[in-house]
Amino acid sequence: MSLSILENVSALSAENSLSMTQNSLSSVLNQLSTGQRINSGADDAAGLSIANGLSASITALNQSTQNANDGVGLLQTADGALSQVTTLLNRAVTLATEAANGTVTSAQQTSMDTEFSSIKNEISRVGTNTTFNGTSVFTGSATSIFLSDASSQSTIATTVGTLSASTLSLGSDSLTSASNAATALTAINTAINTVASSRGTLGATINRLNSAVNVMNTQVTNLSSAENGIMGANIASDVADMSKYQILDQTGMSALAQANQTQQSILKLLQ
Q1: Global pTM?
Q2: Yes or no: is domain 45-231 CATH 3.40.1130.10?
């Protein structure tokens, strides 16, 4: 091998190899410290784009799950209120049945009618004052539950009807006489059926929303797994690479030192 003082090719080659080794070591250490295989677009531009899309879908699905759960909360609030109304109506059945009996006195019927009026007032109060998240529940307006996975969107619409003694057709009924009580009993039984039907509709929608939540949770799990497969670092492989690059870094430094020393031999020729 000829000796030259113009260029130390061996040192330049060793320096270049050492630089590549240190870059690789830095990349591996970055992956180990973050737990991510992709930390910048330079690592895997296509993979980063796919992972970002998956992340957006996961975020949208998580919020949609919360939206659906909020819808369930709204409907469960309404169902709970209607359950109390059913209890009140069952008491009204007892009063009307008793008041329709020919053995009770007029004064007793008046007393029963007073309690019946209180029941109707309480039903109306429940309809007016039942709220969810600061908003009245029994408005009769449609509520749309918005669901999205970032790339598509849908809604589940539900309507909680109005609730009062009047909407249950009990406003003009009384228990002041046997005939009035018999008429009221028919109206009360109709009201009970109406409330039961409303609760059935609410229950069906609650089940639908819960089903949607289950589907979205499964989607989040699968998408998270896919995202992790793209973004997640292979720790075992990275640890092995780290050891390899650390050794190469040390041997590279030694090789560079040896390459720099070769030109010292030229000085011996001048002695």
Answers
A1: 0.77
A2: no
Classify the phi-psi angles of 35: left when phi > 0, otherwise alpha if psi is within -120 to 50, otherwise beta: left
Rounded Cα distance, 264 and 5, in Å:
10
User: What whole-number distance in Å separates Cα of residue 157 and Cα of residue 71?
Assistant: 10
Q: Could you tell me the two tokens for 253?
A: 């430094």
User: What long-range pairs does 105-108 form, CB within 8 A, spacing at least 24?
Assistant: 106/176, 106/177
| Residue appearing with tokens 């790339």 | 151
Q: Containing H/E element for 171?
A: none
Is 270 a residue whose pLDDT tops 70?
A: no
Q: Name the packing angle between helices 106-129 and 178-231 (round to 10°).
A: 20
From residue 76, alpha-carbon distances to 128, 137, 215, 264, 265 in Å are: 16, 10, 20, 87, 90
Amino acid at 60: A
Please choose, from the candidates 14, 2, 20, the residue with its C-alpha nearest in 3D space to the C-alpha of residue 258. 14
Over range 13-25, report the average pLDDT. Answer: 74
Radius of gyration of the chain (CA): 39
Phi then psi dihedrals of residue 77, to 5 deg: -65, -45
Residue 18 has pLDDT above 80, yes or no: no
**What per-residue confidence (pLDDT) applies to 86?**
97
In angstroms, the CA 269 to CA 271 distance is 6
Q: How far is CA 47 from CA 33, 39, 150, 160, 164, in A?
A: 19, 11, 18, 46, 58
Enumerate residues 6+ apart whose C-beta is below 8 A from 89. Answer: 119, 123, 188, 191, 192, 195
pLDDT band at 262 (very low <50, low <70, confident <90, very high): low
